[in-house]
Q: What sequence folds into this?
DNA sequence: CTCCCCACTTGCTGCAAGTCAACCCGAGAA
DNA sequence: TTCTCGGGTTGACTTGCAGCAAGTGGGGAG
């Protein structure tokens, strides 16, 4: 069942999306069960939540919501990839986060007041997401204290990780910020090397790290020529993270 | 009733604090009632929580906790001021936040797992804080769903404001970051001018904004000579925030 | 296949910010 | 009072990063 709807018409350039109701289609939603926000839900409650949700398909560069739009939904990424960004007064676009399949975003809106999106969200490639009404989840929280615990745990983790991001951004020079960023992408916390995939195109990683794309490119070329990394498109191979860390002092 | 105790002995330089149990002394705790985390508590529950808490007095530059210390408490500031910071591998100290009376901090630990402090915390001047056992608050959350709602609302606000901080740090040049910081200190969101007090000594504001103290000083001097601000010790008077914003493009 | 397009790279130049050092000045101690 | 100390400012110099512009190369459209 596929329809087309306008998510919000009060803003310029209405966002058009293909919609797929889920009551009759629960395939591909296993990952939901693995997410902290849904893991503890009873089957019945999860079904009910899914029934009230919509599955959206977003195309490359398609905008999902705008900053300051009233927020009635939060989102779960089934496939694809999105990014969160803001625009400053001069129209410069500053990337704040990237979202992978299995992640939630804008979930903070479940309790924010006033409930308005804090940034823009757009698909980086063709993506499928679940659009969950904030109200439905809120009501669920009331029915079982354990659900609230799960939500609190999730929020706490989020807060810690944002705090961590903030720390990286107080690193003063561009090279060290980039190194910190790469290290943080390593799954096993710098204990051993490995290949990491940049979650964003290079020019957006640059924006995320408060530097110009050219600077990003030059620093990476420099690390490469020093044998610290090997780069293949969006994949960066880090042989010796320890050495990388001591380079950054 | 005043005693002295060692907060944690497993780390070098044990932190010594003067302790004042609160069962018999509830004075000066009105501000607790105004904080989102405690506002909705019943009198009995609040009393019980206070009874399980300790009032600490910290001296100038006294360390309250270290990064990665196991976290069994979170804190409410009664008077004074604290700062949160991290140390990188080369020992450089990077300020992440400042805490004023009436604020909570490390409250994210109520639900973090593993529960370890994400940063260092030290008093910037003589301060009085309430040290609340995480476990006591957790247990309270179980007794009343409304308490969990309050906590979730609070966490959501925190997340939004950290997100905002992150955005400021992606501003590329030092002058604009400083301007954004000053604007954010204005109580009424840049609609009208006013005098703001820097919540940290200038050299720490500089660290918070990822710049050198000299750069901070020069930028402020420049804004001053352009008539955009007037500076008196730690107070900055902003006559026309609109103009300041357009300067920063 | 060819062409174009877009993401990225590279070279060059200038400016913003870091570094090092000297100096200032107010607060507190002697 | 004078001395010292610490936070802050200023100056001279150096450097890292940005800005612009030209070049490269892979992928998709036709």
A:
């Amino acid at each position: 069942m596929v329809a087309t709807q306008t998510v919000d018409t009060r803003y310029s350039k209405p966002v058009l999306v293909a919609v797929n109701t889920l009551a009759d289609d629960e395939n591909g939603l296993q990952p939901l069960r693995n997410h902290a926000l849904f893991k503890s839900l009873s089957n019945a409650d999860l079904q009910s939540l899914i029934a009230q949700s919509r599955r959206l398909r977003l195309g490359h560069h398609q905008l999902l919501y705008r900053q300051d739009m009233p927020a009635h939904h939060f989102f779960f990424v089934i496939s694809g990839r999105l990014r969160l960004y803001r625009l400053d007064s001069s129209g410069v676009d500053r990337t704040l986060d990237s979202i992978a399949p299995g992640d939630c975003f804008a979930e903070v809106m479940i309790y924010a007041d006033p409930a308005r999106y804090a940034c823009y969200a757009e698909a980086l490639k063709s993506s499928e997401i679940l659009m969950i009404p904030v109200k439905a989840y809120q009501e669920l929280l009331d029915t079982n204290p354990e659900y609230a615990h799960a939500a609190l745990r999730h929020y706490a983790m989020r807060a810690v990780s944002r705090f961590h991001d903030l720390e990286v951004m107080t690193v003063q020079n561009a090279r060290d910020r980039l190194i910190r960023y790469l290290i943080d992408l390593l799954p096993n916390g710098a204990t051993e090397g490995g290949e990491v995939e940049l979650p964003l195109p290079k020019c957006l990683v640059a924006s995320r790290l408060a530097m110009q794309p050219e600077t990003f490119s030059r620093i990476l070329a420099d690390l490469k020529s020093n044998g610290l990394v090997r780069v293949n498109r969006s994949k960066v191979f880090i042989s010796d993270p320890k050495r990388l860390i001591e380079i950054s002092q």
Notes: Chain A touches chain B through 49 residues (CB under 8 Å).
